[in-house]
Amino acid sequence: MNLLEKKLITKYLDIFRNVPQDDSFIFIFSSTPEIINCKFGVCFKGKFQLYGSKELIRLSNILGLGDKNEYGFGMTSRDLYFFKKKISSQVI
């Protein structure tokens, strides 16, 4: 189990109080990431792909990957944040 997967499962446990049925999670950079030295340590910026549990991928898109999410680290593309997209006013 990789570090990002462990941290994501910990977040899942904190929220849902149980482990996900499918705990598979694979993170792969699509190209060489940009390495940035920042106040909190080393950060990586680049395009990546996620594979595995739909629950964990969705959670990573909402909460972010890795550490320091409260400071904006670990964020993915704004296009993946479903709650930032305009929601239709149509009632179902």
As a percent range, the share of helical residues equals 25-40%
Number of domains: 1
CATH fold-level label = Alpha-Beta Plaits
What structural class do you assign from the helix and strand content?
alpha+beta
Query: What is the general shape?
Result: globular
Name the beta content range: 15-25%
What order do the helices and strands follow? HEEEEH
Number of helices: 2
Going across the biggest sheet, name each strand in turn: 1-4
- Rg value: 15 Å
Based on DSSP secondary structure assignment, what is the total number of beta strands?
A: 4
Which CATH architecture?
Answer: 2-Layer Sandwich
Q: State the end-to-end CA separation.
A: 41 Å
Question: Averaging pLDDT over every residue, what do you get?
Answer: 80
Describe this structure in words.
- This protein has 92 residues and is an alpha+beta fold.
- It has helices at 3-16, 54-63; strands at 25-29, 34-38, 41-45, 48-52.
- The chain has a single domain (3-84), classed as Alpha-Beta Plaits, CATH 3.30.70.
- The strands form two sheets. A two-stranded antiparallel sheet has the order 1-4. Strands 2-3 form a two-stranded antiparallel sheet.
- Helix 1 crosses helix 2 (54-63).
